[in-house]
Fold this protein.
Amino acid sequence: MAKDYVVGIDVGGQTIKLGVVDARGEVLAQKVIKTSSDPSAEVVVSEIAQAVRDIVRESGKEGQIRGVGVGAPNGNYYTGTIAFAPNLSWAANGSIEFAKMLSEAIDGIPVSLTNDANAAAVGEMTYGAARGMKNFIMITLGTGVGSGIVIDGKVVYGSDGFAGELGHTTAVRHNGRLCGCGRCGCLEAYCSAIGVARTAREWLAMSDEPSLLRTVADITSKDVYEAAKEGDKLALKVFEFTGRILGEKLADFIAFSAPEAIVLFGGLARAKEFLTEPIERAMNENVLALWKGKVKLVYSQLKESDAAILGASALAWEL
Amino acid sequence: MAKDYVVGIDVGGQTIKLGVVDARGEVLAQKVIKTSSDPSAEVVVSEIAQAVRDIVRESGKEGQIRGVGVGAPNGNYYTGTIAFAPNLSWAANGSIEFAKMLSEAIDGIPVSLTNDANAAAVGEMTYGAARGMKNFIMITLGTGVGSGIVIDGKVVYGSDGFAGELGHTTAVRHNGRLCGCGRCGCLEAYCSAIGVARTAREWLAMSDEPSLLRTVADITSKDVYEAAKEGDKLALKVFEFTGRILGEKLADFIAFSAPEAIVLFGGLARAKEFLTEPIERAMNENVLALWKGKVKLVYSQLKESDAAILGASALAWEL
């Protein structure tokens, strides 16, 4: 029987999303599972294997699954391991041979694994905004800032499988904010959802400027976005600042791989009406003349609810 | 007859170096020509074609040349053109179809062209310090700062052929020096031979610190190097500063492509006894934990007099 379907799995800290996907990017069946509290890797793998069997049966495509693609934090494409992933309790303190374990638990169906940002890049190239592109850089603006770099149609994994950590390049060299990675001034400390909320909180504390945000407890990036939509000046300046920092770093990335486009993805990318202009301005001010106005800034075209599954599933087509 | 030899051509502003090279990187015959003053592109190409015929005859390898590789400023691998190269009067104001013109002038022998830093990277991979490496970044520290990025054994050319302009990523974000490219704060403005001389001159002007360099007119990077060898404190601090800035940027580059090694090449790389320690320190301080102490810093192993020819010639093996 032709194997014309794949399974995509997005592994997150609290939830794991799975779907059966066809070649056009239609999700035929999907499921979200919550991991049991403080599970072992063996338990997580067996729960996922059960869920894979469930959705494959539900989709009616038993025996037609070509492979399984997995996007997971700190997932390594070369080794198939998930190692020292702070957000996954079962893989926080060691290296888990996830691809091998899962493949064994689902009757030997091959499993391919990478980190979530690389999976998003493959998904965008296979089904989304980067279809037909051979050279682009995917930036995921979520809780953190991730990246997937595509050169000549292939994701860049580098010598060790960990290439494409652009969230941890330095955006602010002096007195930069402490990042979750332990270094200071990382792009992620400024241009993630957490970074945006932090900028707002810092600016509120530093000035008396009136703002809708002054009445909000525990400000999130969503609060800043809502305030900006109401025309709140401080919130608008937060996005202006965030966009400028991102645009400055994008200019450096362009000098590296001369991409056709930068693709933005993730929760924060929803604020595109406030981010696009400052990003494009800073990007074009900071590139060599030959790239000014040439590199497109585009936004993910994957349906948000399906994006994580689609990204991961796209990996499996290469199996 | 087997075509077991290649020709390498290094195109510079004043001089053009050519050589016939075998598969082991031996230069069998070579020649340096000076371009006539203010020549047209046609004249330059015909002078080069004549020189190619001369060295091929001299080497006794007529009919055995597989191809010609050319390294030239602003050389584009995809199009075979040299375009808007400020240091080449005959290609400063337009786009010259150099590869096509030269190939026609030498009886159709195929010609491959790229910029000088990419040629150096291919040379290092074929004959030098990067033999056996699939992922490395070549940084050329000369009058300017160039780069050639190798991923999975291939030079990165990007969507337009101009990828790998790491000398024009931003090293100093605020009040950075004006660079030759018209932007401010570029790595090249600090870590080139010209940048080193400029740092020395600025520091001499700003302080009364005694230095051997105070008696030198028109300070060059070589003067700074000589003074450092004499133990001159200011000169030593100049290299410390230069190395730190380079190391900080190398950390960003590592986050991009996770290379096995950084290979340094060019005149300034001769100052390795003063540069290595500050580069490695800044590099390792600024990378994610997973790369600390992992990425090798190595120096070109090509014989300096042959390096430019070897780099260009290595391109031709792929023809």
Remarks:
- Chain B touches chain A through 41 residues (CB under 8 Å).
- The two ends of chain B are 17 Å apart (CA to CA).
